[in-house]
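Form 7-S
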Amino acid sequence: MQTEKDAELYRGVNTASPPQHPMLVPGWIAPEPPAGYRNLVAILCPVKVDSRSTTAWFLDYLNTESAAFASEEQEVEVAWPWVDGFKPLADDWDSIGIPHLA
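Output:
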């Protein structure tokens, strides 16, 4: 059941299944979320690579009611959905049904 907060999170996100994108790994579908979480999200975070600052995308599950991420309680492993070498933008995540947080 989708809550108001879920609906807000998914505003502008393509939720068609299966996801379609020319750079998506063939056959990739989002795995089942851990108990207590419904929403797989892509988070753009600042990182340091070879002592230079940049950003990187990370996948995690979000509980919109508590604003908690699954990775705060357990290890979260989600197969990277994009073909090697592709650098997704926010719209790419939205196009495959994964809301982006930046």
